[in-house]
Design goal:
The chain is an alpha/beta fold. It contains 20 helices and twelve strands. The radius of gyration is 27 Å and the shape is globular.
């Protein structure tokens, strides 16, 4: 069987792969000052990882070229048809390679690979300023011309007559198999979610993600994402500076010893399900008892309504203020100064755990972006078949036990987060626990009680570990869920979540446990407790230990923003004039 047409196609697409790698080399060398802190191993890993993104975009945009190169008809051997294929190849790939080159220079202005929003926003300026841009950046234009000429010259030609008269029972499966492998390369592999730009940002330092990415992939991946409309809420710059001016605060930490940090994010644990502050028992007796031993913030709010919105708020103090979650938004490749990034520089071992399938809601990628170097999901759990809930991942009790023992293998100090799973639709609990917990009047209640009991058993195990007495625990929920209480069925109640701080060997005190606080406050609160200064200021969150700054919470739902403060709740639509307090 003659496979000349397949070999020729792979040579042509292989040429593109080499060209994309050459562009990556130029990008790295020209912008080396941004990456000089990276080790040689990390740089090599970035180049190798980048091939995955290159193949994805190459096979995506050249799919019509692929189909036209493999159609089983005799005229594809004709020189005229082969010239047509070459023209199509150049027409399709020239613009994409050119923007890849442009980004070598443009990266110095934006600090990130260009997105579709960049291209759309600059379209008019490029047309208006085309002449002066070409004159000032002529090396880019010249490089593009040379690159395209090089591709046209190196383009593999057909040197022999191709036998396309393959028998149908051979040709059909061969073509189907080849196209199936194309689809696999386009989605970037067999992982749960197709390849996204933020998958590139898992290396250390984080900025190496721009080396992994190529600009055509970034543009295509963000083309269907709605960007934020630029609005002006403040009349001038000085007014804005006045409102966000940093206030010096007294640090909460009392010793030079570095404390461990464990953040437990409980799936769907709305305050409604707790006995804290309510005139009923609730379904979280252990969390309630822990709150009585530590600090319970009575007015804590989630910044979003979904799990995918919670992680940026909690780990990086980025509240959900867009219709599109930050993790999948046009800004997903922006530099993130997360809690893990900061603590790694202080010598902390960082990790994040979630019992769901790896790739679920992009948790693994964002955790890496926020500086949590190691990720443990369903893939890393040792006995998946035994403890799988049949839907999302590993039941809470066994996964929390895995978490407790794994923490004991880490060098101290460490910072680790865990996202529970079981109190998620379809609300499944292990067989041996059915009928053991109160069912309540909502389907979620029994699962919340099971998860609360799983946390209790986690703490029983943790108490026996050497790291326990030197650890700050922060427990909160990602968001609320279904409601049966009128007092929680309102604009504030749907964001009302527990927030508890607990330390086994220290009495934690805050100036005011009734202050308004939010998920975005967790990062500055942890840094405050640890006596660590944040070199890159974060204006969305404030430490709950602050005596001078008034607490507040920001939420966004159905196109409306809520600013929650001590004596008022201000609701305003996107684009309206923001009130100044």
């Amino acid at each position: 069987m003659n496979l000349t047409q397949y070999k020729l196609l792979l040579k042509r697409l292989g040429l593109l792969t080499l060209i994309y790698t050459l562009c990556r080399v130029c990008f790295f060398i020209y912008n080396y000052s941004y990456f000089r802190e990276a080790s040689a191993t990390s740089v090599l890993e970035a180049f190798v990882s980048g091939i995955r993104f290159d193949l994805s975009v190459i096979f995506m945009v050249n799919l019509p070229f692929t189909l036209l190169s493999l159609i089983p008809v005799t005229f594809i051997t004709k020189s005229g048809y082969q010239k047509f294929l070459k023209i199509l190849f150049l027409v399709v790939n020239t613009p994409l390679l050119f923007v890849n080159l442009v980004d070598i220079e443009f990266f110095r202005f934006t600090g990130k690979r260009s997105t579709y929003e960049h291209l759309a926003g600059l379209q008019k300026d490029i047309l208006d300023q085309g002449t002066q841009l070409a004159l000032n950046y002529w090396p880019v234009l010249l490089s593009g011309v040379i690159l395209i000429a090089m591709i046209a010259w190196l383009y593999p030609k057909s040197k022999s007559v191709m036998n396309v008269r393959l028998k149908l029972y051979i040709a059909a499966p061969l073509l189907i198999g080849f196209l199936a492998s194309n689809i696999l390369l386009i989605r970037g592999g067999l992982q749960l979610k197709p390849l996204r730009p933020n998958h590139a940002f898992t290396l250390n330092p984080n900025i190496l993600g721009n080396v992994v990415l190529n600009t055509p992939f970034s543009l295509i991946a963000t083309s269907n994402i709605q960007p934020i409309q630029r609005v002006h809420f403040f009349s001038n710059q000085s007014e804005l500076v006045r409102l966000i001016k940093k206030t010096k605060i007294k640090k909460a930490g009392s010793t030079k010893e570095k404390e461990n940090v464990v953040i437990l994010i409980c799936e769907s644990f709305g305050s409604e399900y707790s006995g804290l502050g309510n005139n009923y028992k609730g379904f979280t007796p252990f969390l309630d008892s822990l709150a009585n031993q530590g600090v319970w913030m009575k007015n804590a709010y989630a910044n979003g309504r979904t799990s995918i919105e919670a992680l940026p708020s909690i780990l990086a103090s980025i509240p959900s203020l867009m219709s599109e979650p930050y993790i999948t938004s046009a800004y997903q490749t922006n530099e993130v100064v997360g809690l893990g990034n900061i603590l790694q520089k202080e010598g902390y071992h960082t990790s994040f755990f979630h019992g769901g399938k790896n790739g679920t809601m992009g948790f693994d990628v964002f955790a890496h972006n926020a500086g949590f170097a190691e990720y443990y999901g369903k893939n890393e759990y040792p006995d998946q078949d035994k403890d799988f809930d049949g839907n999302w991942g590993i039941f809470d009790e066994p996964f929390l036990q895995f978490f407790a023992h794994k923490l004991s293998t880490f060098k101290q100090p460490f910072a680790s987060g865990l996202f529970t799973l079981s109190s998620h639709p379809p609300y499944t609990i292990p067989e041996q626990y059915k009928g053991k917990f109160p069912k309540g009047d909502l389907p979620i209640h029994e699962c919340v009680a099971y998860s609360d009991n799983s946390i209790r058993k986690f703490f029983e195990t943790a108490k026996k570990q050497p790291w326990y007495s030197n650890t700050l625990f922060i427990i909160t929920a990602d968001h609320t869920q279904m409601s049966s209480k009128p007092e929680y069925s309102n604009e504030l109640g749907v964001f009302d979540v527990p927030m508890v701080l607990f330390h086994p060997s220290k009495k934690i005190t805050v100036p005011n446990d009734e202050r308004i606080c939010q998920h975005a406050d967790i990062l500055p609160t942890v840094l405050d407790f640890l006596n660590i200064d944040n070199p890159k200021s974060n204006y969305f969150g404030t430490s709950i230990f602050s005596e001078k700054e008034e607490g507040y919470a920001l939420t966004f739902s159905n196109g409306s923003y809520n600013l929650i403060k001590k004596r008022l709740v201000c609701l305003f639509k996107s684009g309206e004039q923001m009130p100044v307090f």
